[in-house]
Amino acid sequence: MGQKIERDLQRFRKIVRGKVKSDLRKYISRGEMIGKKGNDLVSIPLPSIEIPQFRYGSKNSGGVGVGEGQPGQPLSNPEGEGEPKAGDQPGGHILEVELTLEELAEILGEELALPRIEPRGKANVVSEKDKYTSIRRVGPESLRHFKRTYKNALKRQISSGTYVPDDPRVVPVREDKQYRSWKVTPQPESVACIIYMMDVSGSMTDEQKEIVRIESFWIDTWIKRHYKGIERAYIVHDAVAREVDEHTFYHTRESGGTKISSAYELANKIIDSRYPPNDWNVYAFHFSDGDNWGDDVPKCLEILSKQLLPKVNLFGYGQVESPYGSGEFFDHIAELAAAEEKIVVSKVPDRDAILGSIKEFLSTGR
Angle of helix 2-22 relative to helix 101-112, nearest 10 degrees? Predict the structure, then answer.
């Protein structure tokens, strides 16, 4: 019974996985998963799922398909006559299922054909791993070394004269048994830091910030799949930049001019002080509507090319479309991206473009 339940559960999870994968664009654009995240689990609302099965009706019950029928005869039962009234039958319900972030990352990777990320740099997180490298004379039967036990028993029977070649039965006794033993060895694990930067000047609306929030969630989910530990830093900027917590990052609304170089300078300081590239895999993503103080563009490109790029695995620039922003910065950074493989640029005009933008950012495998 237990095996049957497990098979049914695995079958159900495959159906759920297929449903999520087929509707992935819808879930990404709506952002429903983000609000239902907790303890590395995501609760996903799905329409009721019915597993197809045959149902047999009563014998000789009549109906279309049994006996004579007339052209145009409806297949369903005729509706009753009379005035319409409130129904007394239950309607369809929404089923909420839970997926781990690991499962969600696998679905995203399959749908977008994303390559596995190859970490760089030294690892500074060490976990313990059991490695079976030695032999003991005692232990659980599940770890018994069959070959060594058999050899010991064979040698004992030959030396004692109890081994009969015509009847080659080898029966181990307690003294013959050997067991695998383990030794705890340090196992290095790669770690990563993600630095998110966002323009919060007056031209960035709440809708643009929600697009950034949704895209950041999926970027987090994919990168986290490839690293043991992840830390995040959040930077907001208008004419000046400051580091904030996650909630402030997505909910701050400010006004004033835009000076992108201030965010790049702060990101560079954070990397130097907390995330040295020899030990950390650093990812930086900047979201803006492309509005920038004209004289600031050369300084941005200089900081990016000479200071940030040598320290990061990937730098992503995502430009969200705002009715108030000029969008001119995209052309400048796209020109630099043509010569620098670590830079990926993407335009995100609306929520429907989020999935394509994620693919552009993560398809490099860095």
Answer: 50
Q: What is the CA radius of gyration of the chain?
A: 31
Q: What is the DSSP letter of 306?
A: I
Task: Yes or no: say if 48 and 93 are a contact pair by the CB < 8 Å rule.
Answer: yes
326 to 118, 195, 211, 294, 330: CA distances (angstroms): 36, 25, 18, 11, 10
CATH (one of 1.20.1050.10, 3.40.50.410, 3.40.50.300, 1.10.10.10) for 190-362:
3.40.50.410
In the chain, where are the structural domains located? 1-51+94-113, 128-186, 190-362
State pLDDT tens for residues 249-288.
877 776 667 899 999 999 999 999 999 988 899 999 999 9
- What are the Cα distances from residue 290, in Å, to 22, 58, 224, 258, 333? 33, 69, 28, 9, 10
Q: Quote the DSSP letter at residue 19.
A: H
Residue type, 52: P
Cα–Cα nearest to 204, from 287, 286, 285, 284: 287
In this prediction, residue 364 carries a pLDDT of 83
- φ, ψ (nearest 5 deg) of residue 7: -65, -45
Question: Which regions in the chain score pLDDT beneath 50?
Answer: 48-49, 51, 91-93, 123, 125-127
What's the whole-number average pLDDT of the chain?
Answer: 78
Q: Can you tell me whether residue 7 is helix, strand or coil?
A: helix
Instruction: Output helix, strand, coil percentages for the chain, rounded to the nearest 5.
Output: 40, 25, 40
Say if CB 30 and CB 214 are below 8 A apart.
no
Q: Find, among 312, 330, 310, 311, the residue nearest to 321 by Cα.
A: 330
What's this model's pTM, rounded to 2 decimal places? 0.64
| Strand 37-38 to 241-244 pairing | unpaired
